[in-house]
Write a structure and sequence with these properties.
The protein is of the alpha/beta class and about 675 residues long. The protein is built from 25 helices and 16 strands. Helix content is about 40%, strand content about 10%.
């Protein structure tokens, strides 16, 4: 070890970070300066990866929680050769690969998108769970480490409670997190908002906690060595650091640890940018240079990393030859491909709740797909993920042979963990809770959509028909909120989320097939608590009919030249079929009924197909148990939608159907009024 080069390299990171912020006139320099020592030591001496294959599945992974410290990451990865000078010079600019908060870019070393504090380290916990799951199945090949980086703000976010509890409970000794504790926040000092003993808190959750001087390289090494030796617990390294480490004023006095250094260029503070660059060993005339000594040092480091990775690759190749069946299975897992599945073979009970239909599919998947982790927020017997659990077992400390994660009452944590599982690769994550609690999940759903992660959400108790549980548990506006993500495109230009609300048990099987085949975005299945009348088959089988849901919408009842088309999704489709029967019997009307399982997917189809389902210029009537806006984008200028414009009430579901006007008789009357009004 060379103390001089290590200090110089850390100062190089600091100089690059402040230069990025200064040039962009935007960003967070102070925390980056404080975290530079840990990052340098971690990446040069501890983190195992292959510089020639940054997405190598057997690499260690680093999950950043504090996305505002992006300049720290870009500076470090610039030293590693993952970025060019012009990349760091274009920090926070249009079209650059160095955005203000890091966006997942594995080939450059960015394992996760971060920004909203707390989610990044929870994703790291998910990756650690994924590694344990795979390691239990492939003879120790996935014994790599997951490193996290958190700050005072991330520790304060409520999600840290869930992530800390779960990581400690599961004994994730493969998860090592550095807490950059500098006592400074964006708008205040930490002692103005908290007085907790963070070390004791994590210890109570079952963590090993080590407190060090976060600028002392030898202490960093000792802490990391102890963490690597730990066999039972995750490790929290509390590094006491200095916000704006190395900043000086115009007269050369040190100016560190100040709140104003957090979130603006240091040139806009009492510190002096040029004098600080000089103090850090940088050339103010060329602030984006890598110091020559550092460049030489890092070239040697990278060569050693590649050599170590080559050695492990050799070991893996030998293992594959000795274990051909396991090798084939591992390759299938890592490819993201599915085994051969036939969801049409899943036996569904007639007139079942769609949550029960989902349970039947999950039971099938438990027996036919070996790389799924299903998680529930203490509702497995209500959201019916216990269909999977009954054929698997719960993940627990020192035993990751199962495939079910009991997350406890922690919806946001659970969903962020699922994102981390997906980011790790090799596993399909499924999470479940009541639909109304998707509100708790929303920040992580949004990050899944941004990161284009194929997480599967199972949302049950999908409407006011939850009944006696009352307005707190009856989702009214949730479908509209979720479907907004069907209306926004991700950076690949695709619909950012697929939301599916199936009309009956068989359509639920098809919806699950769609979800499993959707490997580009997250998918949500919105499912009923109450039983739903089975949709009659119009073709050779109901399953064959329901496969047309793959186009987002299809006719479940059709006749040539209909007088009116009725549209809905979920349980309201059966209500419309019953209303259509009354219209045909009493008024001799010709009626089509469509199940629009996903508006976003439906609108991706050709205009000809859309008009074959919902004719332009014809009478269209929609029914939804949520806000009318759920269907208003489908009905045209002359159409009408009946929905709810108020919160629910506590009463049996059948009573609410009557009170809210969701009986076939009432809907029939509304349709007739609409027809009359349209004349």
């Amino acid at each position: 070890m060379n103390k001089t080069i290590d200090n110089l390299a850390a100062d190089n990171v600091r100089a690059l970070a402040i230069s990025m912020v200064e040039k962009a006139n935007s960003g967070h320099p102070g925390g980056a300066m404080g975290g530079a020592d840990f990052m340098h030591i971690l990446y040069t001496e501890y983190l195992n990866f292959d510089p020639t294959e940054m997405d190598w599945p057997f690499r260690d992974r680093f999950f950043m929680d504090a996305g505002h410290l992006s300049a720290l990451m870009y500076a470090q990865y610039y030293l590693l050769g993952n970025y060019k000078k012009e990349d760091v010079q274009n920090f926070r600019q249009w079209g650059s690969v160095t955005p203000g908060h890091p966006e997942v870019d594995v080939l450059r070393g960015i394992e996760n998108t971060s920004g909203p504090l707390g989610q990044g380290h929870a994703m790291g916990v998910g990756a650690a769970i994924a590694a344990k799951f795979l390691d239990a199945r492939f003879n120790g090949l996935f014994n790599h480490k997951i490193y996290g980086f958190i700050t005072d703000g991330g520790v304060q976010e409520e999600i840290s409670q869930g992530a800390g509890r779960i990581a400690g409970h599961l004994g994730l000794n493969n998860f090592i997190m550095f807490y950059d504790s500098n006592d400074v926040q964006l708008s205040s000092m930490t002692d103005e908002v908290t007085s907790e003993n963070t070390a004791m808190k994590y210890e109570s959750w079952g963590w090993k906690v080590i407190t060090i001087d976060g600028h002392d390289h030898e202490q960093i090494r000792k802490a990391l060595n102890k963490a690597l030796e730990e066999s039972e617990k995750p490790t929290l390294i509390i590094g006491k650091t200095i916000m704006g480490k190395g900043c000086v004023t115009t007269n050369g006095d040190m100016y560190e640890g100040e709140c104003e250094l957090h979130g603006k260029p240091i040139g806009d503070t009492k510190a002096d940018y040029v004098k600080t660059l000089i103090n850090l060993g940088a050339n103010p005339e060329s602030p984006f240079d890598i110091y020559e000594e550092v460049k030489t040092h890092y070239s040697k480091i990278l060569a050693k990393k590649a050599e170590d990775a080559a050695y492990k690759k050799h070991q893996i190749t030998a293992w594959k030859k000795e274990n051909p069946a396991l090798s084939q299975k591992m390759d299938l897992f890592l490819s993201g491909a599915l085994p051969e599945l036939d969801l049409s073979s899943v036996v569904q009970k007639a007139n079942a709740a769609t949550r029960d239909a989902s349970s039947a599919v999950l039971a099938y998947l438990a027996e036919n797909v070996e790389n799924i982790i299903v998680s529930s927020a203490d509702l497995s017997n209500s959201d019916k993920t216990d269909g999977f659990l009954k054929k698997s077992s719960v993940l627990q400390k020192n035993d990751f042979s199962g495939a079910f994660l009991q997350a406890g009452v922690a919806e946001l944590t659970m969903t962020s963990i699922a994102n981390g599982i997906a980011l790790h690769g090799g596993i399909i994550p499924v999470v479940a809770t009541f639909f109304v609690f998707s509100d708790y999940m929303k920040p992580a759903i949004r990050l899944a959509a941004i990161q284009e992660l194929p997480v599967k959400y199972v949302w049950t108790h999908d409407s006011f028909r939850v009944g006696e549980d009352g307005p707190t548990h009856q989702p009214i506006e949730q479908e509209a909120q979720i479907r907004l993500l069907e209306k926004i495109k991700n950076h690949s230009g695709n619909q950012s989320l697929l939301a599916l609300r199936p009309a009956d048990a068989i359509e639920t099987s098809v919806a699950w097939d769609m979800a499993l085949k959707n490997t580009k975005t997250p998918t949500g299945l919105i499912l009923s608590r109450q039983n739903i009348a089975a949709i009659p088959a119009t073709g050779t089988s109901r399953y064959e009919d329901a496969t047309h849901a793959e186009k987002g919408g299809y006719l479940v009842q059709s006749t040539p030249n209909p007088d009116i088309t009725l549209i809905a999704n979920g349980s309201e489709v059966a209500t419309l079929i019953a209303a259509a029967a009354l219209l045909e019997k009493e008024k001799n009307l010709k009626v089509n009924v469509a199940s629009i399982i996903s508006e976003g997917l439906f609108k991706q189809q050709s205009k000809a197909y859309q008009e074959s389902i919902i004719p332009t210029g014809k009478l269209v009537f929609g029914l939804t148990a949520g806000l009318p806006v759920n269907l208003e984008g489908l009905i045209g200028d002359s159409g009408k939608v009946i929905g709810l414009a108020h919160f629910g009430y506590s009463a049996p579901a059948s009573v609410l159907d009557e009170k809210f006007g969701f009986t076939s008789e009432h809907v029939c009357a509304e349709i007739l009024n609409y027809i009359e009004e349209s004349k």
